[in-house]
Amino acid sequence: MGIAIMTSGGDCAGMNPGIKRFVEYSIEKGLKPYLICDGLEGLIDNRIQPATHADVAGIITKGGSVLRSSRSARFFEPEYRQQAYDNLKAHGIDMLVVLGGDGSFRALDVFYREFGIAFCGIPATIDNDIFGTDYCLGVDTALNVIRQATDQIRDTASSSRRAFVIETMGRDCGYLALVSALTSGAEICLIPELPYDLDSLKKRFQAEIADGRTYMIAIVSEGVDFAPQLTRWLEEEVGMEARLTVLGHTQRGGSPTVLDRLRAFEFVTIAIDALVTGSNDGVVFYKNCQMATRSISEVVSGRSEISPVYLEEGRKLTR
Amino acid sequence: MGIAIMTSGGDCAGMNPGIKRFVEYSIEKGLKPYLICDGLEGLIDNRIQPATHADVAGIITKGGSVLRSSRSARFFEPEYRQQAYDNLKAHGIDMLVVLGGDGSFRALDVFYREFGIAFCGIPATIDNDIFGTDYCLGVDTALNVIRQATDQIRDTASSSRRAFVIETMGRDCGYLALVSALTSGAEICLIPELPYDLDSLKKRFQAEIADGRTYMIAIVSEGVDFAPQLTRWLEEEVGMEARLTVLGHTQRGGSPTVLDRLRAFEFVTIAIDALVTGSNDGVVFYKNCQMATRSISEVVSGRSEISPVYLEEGRKLTR
Amino acid sequence: MGIAIMTSGGDCAGMNPGIKRFVEYSIEKGLKPYLICDGLEGLIDNRIQPATHADVAGIITKGGSVLRSSRSARFFEPEYRQQAYDNLKAHGIDMLVVLGGDGSFRALDVFYREFGIAFCGIPATIDNDIFGTDYCLGVDTALNVIRQATDQIRDTASSSRRAFVIETMGRDCGYLALVSALTSGAEICLIPELPYDLDSLKKRFQAEIADGRTYMIAIVSEGVDFAPQLTRWLEEEVGMEARLTVLGHTQRGGSPTVLDRLRAFEFVTIAIDALVTGSNDGVVFYKNCQMATRSISEVVSGRSEISPVYLEEGRKLTR
Amino acid sequence: MGIAIMTSGGDCAGMNPGIKRFVEYSIEKGLKPYLICDGLEGLIDNRIQPATHADVAGIITKGGSVLRSSRSARFFEPEYRQQAYDNLKAHGIDMLVVLGGDGSFRALDVFYREFGIAFCGIPATIDNDIFGTDYCLGVDTALNVIRQATDQIRDTASSSRRAFVIETMGRDCGYLALVSALTSGAEICLIPELPYDLDSLKKRFQAEIADGRTYMIAIVSEGVDFAPQLTRWLEEEVGMEARLTVLGHTQRGGSPTVLDRLRAFEFVTIAIDALVTGSNDGVVFYKNCQMATRSISEVVSGRSEISPVYLEEGRKLTR
User: Where is this gene product found (chains A, B, C, D) (predicted)?
Assistant: First the structure.
């Protein structure tokens, strides 16, 4: 029984530990594992090869994905999906494990309904915005990359009496920014989920500066799209010299933390177990500390939300 | 209403973020926060002082505990517990938050029954061996310290065709060693919870070496007390040059990871909420992804256990 | 004999180890050490205090400067320099150690000629652009911050088949960018010191991409002011999806590396020795592996240059 | 013209950047590069293969050596050296670059005198004990591994009021220990090069403890062979609880720092230039900030020494 793995959409840390676990556990289960390179594009172009232990030797410590990833426009077209199916059939593959985001899951759900190739999706995106799961692969590593950068910036902020605005990734989800703010002692945090009050912030900080505050850290989620403006506002309205740092793609990389390696291990184990026992349309969720599979319709049925406890605390950083 | 915090027993990362959250949240709740230095010894010797925001500025990034910790023999004696009580009374403190291990919780339980000072314990030990909670503060940071060291050792192991034995902490609990082994691709893992079969391991590795294996990583928990012997066995029986690295106290230190900062935040918030609402004998547990308080009798009623899923996987590394 | 230290201009790692060495060595030499906060601004506003061992306990591991830094417009005006002098006289300080850039050295040279306060400057700037010295404090730590970020970006670049442009600091000096490119295997490096040929680069990379190259790293010095344009050029002309990361102020921070701590120790030792033996207008240089003092006129007499060996190698990354 | 590279003796960071530079620069110079695996043992057993760019893609960030290393007993015997020579002749290789220690240089010097195969040695050992050169590859990375571990231990030392003894590598050279002590603020440092006075240390620390000192860091070089005894002495004589951490082989690993990558680049460039211009018995030294070749007889003519400036400062940590 052939089973294949691909990493799709945006890349993140944890994918490589997942690929390693995939190969080892598949072999343990008496399956024939295959690797698909370059995500859906590679599925279309038959970049599919049998996998051995040697293929995954040493990759557990590496960030990103050795299989690479892609966003595929061609997969939207039936002829290319037919091609993808023909490729899988030729290799004798009838089960797919996919590490990626909900976009990839939807695509494979369509594929499943057309061709019957069972798949199990593993939520993997540093944005942590897939509905139904408390955790997406890559988030812990991204948070710790942000933490290191924020600690470095704090050194220079405190030495130069400046305000620093740090823009994090997240698409439309403020999780990375909010958790980073709560765990770094930032003074301001702007995320899409919460309204903010600049006048209130201005009053508060002018008072604190008069009272001795010498520097400040503000963390802004990219989804708010306000980091440069906030930087200018800090200089012009609040009266503190300010600098902006856009953290960028360092947030996608880095050797996976232990948590991301562990979750990758668990996600992939559950995914393969589910496929082997006949599950054919599912996504693995991590909810209430349990790994379980859910149907794709659940994933697309709602918007992910940040815990109210964090949001409650985050409000204080918006006014 | 006076509320005080102490860190007790072995120190670990996450204690400082917890202390910071304690001061800020206490003030938010209209309480008067106090800091007790040097754990139970400091409680006896009145090293108690009122806390301000300035006391906790910048500590969120620091490993260890700025309040320091202690193991107290004197606290076992009633006269010193009386002294401790008198100190608290003099300061008007009637609530205690304690970050530490079950030893500290038991001591404060006795203290509560004698003097009625309510306390809430927060499990904090890198050994992750407190019954009832899935997570103890400090574990994630310790795991990532081990990960970095293991990655460094892997460089030299692969370059010198050697087997490396790495001894981790854990007291009698193999959690640190097992999770480290599973997330680093180690070939052998010995922990107190699992029997091991040296003959089986010898057969397996002699075959793998004949087949091309050039190096090996073995992770041994201190509770097994076998690391030096395993190192000798690798050289004499398996036939691969071997070296031992005892990781030691680096595992206790390091800037707290984001997860440890987040859990510290959550643990302390729940602890203060519980005390304020009249709970007077409890420990905060993190179970099934929820923070909740439980009575001390639950803590001492059983032995912590590692998840069967991990143990199952761990067995393969023992034979 | 009073001797004071200040950190001036841009902050950098290594300043804190320098401040610690200053206090300890001054005391050893029988001098009375003073700390000046906030650079020249603090000198004007009398933020001067006697220093003790306690002031510098634990700072050796910290990035930035606990004394903070400033760029002073007021110091250009004679009345404020008079005020500064009066402050020093009041404290009995007649020797100054200054960690900063050539701007600070020039200011203190003027001050010396007016008031006779001997100073010794220590080159400290991550840009590494002070003429006469091979090494400026802060450079090694900045290079390793860039290295970590580049390694993280390489993970995602290789996983997503993209070209990544990384903009580093440096003002008008390409040292940070060039050394980073040479030690990270970057494919392109644009610095102010070297002309570049986009057509030649385009030909070369289009051939390499046809031949199998899947991703690319380009490092651009801020002094070239071309990073966004290069990013667009990569997408539009070379035909590879491209992203830009501006590393920003993380390059100023971070716990000082061993080299920066060692150089700080050496720089400060030489500076104090020079002042004690009557030198009254000098800068400490690190040249040919020796620490030696030179007069300020030497510093301002030329432009720093990057080693021809590095430039030679760098040319290959411009065409 | 065939030129080959091997890494020999103990492994260290910087070897991989050196191997990468070797392949690229050899090709640039119109030479045919070869890789020898497993040091002298591989030379004997013909583990020699032609090198391509693909062989060294991505290795610049990796610790250790992808060619691995060995200590060869067989190379002492003429028949095996003959075998080694025959292997090189068969491949058309008449130039060797060797990254290793003086033991490897001596062996290849004998080999050169017997068979005329020119070699250029590059000093590579974390012990930094090769006479004639100020710098050996791998030292900067090792120092920063020690720094991180020492910072982690400082967290727990200060939290638990303990003295910590940290044993570093170094064979008979105290460089690693001494520089680590000077740049981490350690209170005690014992190295082979300096006598120490326990009575004096005891008096001093008993006074400091009475005066408020709560913890202590001692760094001991393995060459002194006294770390466990010092630990006991601290508890029994000085009266402070003490723990020992032997840093072990983590000191050999880790991604090479920028300095090690840069020196590797420079060392290899000079080595290949020297061989190409007809030098046939030499070692590359880094002295007074210059790379230059010297004859092997110079290397073996003396013992390396630590700078008197560092030793002077180190004395204060021995009594």
Answer: Cytoplasm
Give me the domains of chain A, ranges plus CATH numbers. Answer: 2-138+256-301 (3.40.50.450), 140-252 (3.40.50.460)
Does the distance separating the beta carbons of D65 and B161 come in below 8 Å? no
Distances (CA, A) of A211 to A215, C156, C173, C230: 12, 44, 39, 45
Closest CA to C99 of C309, C277, C256, C319: C256
| ipTM entry | 0.94
Report chain A residues whose CB lies below 8 A from the CB of C148: 148
DSSP conformational letter for D187: S
User: What mean pLDDT do residues A272-292 have?
Assistant: 86
Select from D23, D183, D285 the residue whose CB has the most chain C CBs within 10 Å, as the one to mutate to test that interface. Answer: D183
pLDDT digits (tens, 9 = 90+) for B37-70: 999 999 999 999 999 999 999 899 999 999 999 9
Spatial separation of the C-alpha atoms in residues D283 and D122, rounded to whole Å = 6
Using CB atoms, pick whichever of B11, B244, B245 lies closest to residue D250.
B245
Nearest-Cα distance to chain D for B38, in Å, is 8
Of C125, C224, C228, nearest to C174 (Cα)?
C224
Q: How far apart are the first and last CA of chain B?
A: 58
Edge-to-edge strands, sheet with B188-190? B188-190, B216-221, B163-168, B242-246
Let me know if A127 is a catalytic residue. yes
Chains with 3 or more CB pairs closer than 8 angstroms to C?
Answer: A, D
Q: Shortest CB distance from A155 goes to which of C62, C70, C151? A: C62
D216-221: strand order across its sheet: D188-190, D216-221, D163-168, D242-246
CB contact under 8 A, A10 and C160: yes
CB contact under 8 A, A258 and B144: yes
Give the bridge partners for D218, in sequence order. D165, D188
Alpha helices in chain D (DSSP H): 15-28, 39-44, 78-91, 102-115, 139-160, 175-184, 198-210, 227-233, 258-276, 296-299, 308-315
pLDDT, tens digit (0-9, with 9 covering 90-100), for A1-52: 899 999 998 899 999 999 999 999 999 999 999 999 999 999 999 999 999 9
Q: Mean of the pLDDT values across residues C192-218?
A: 95
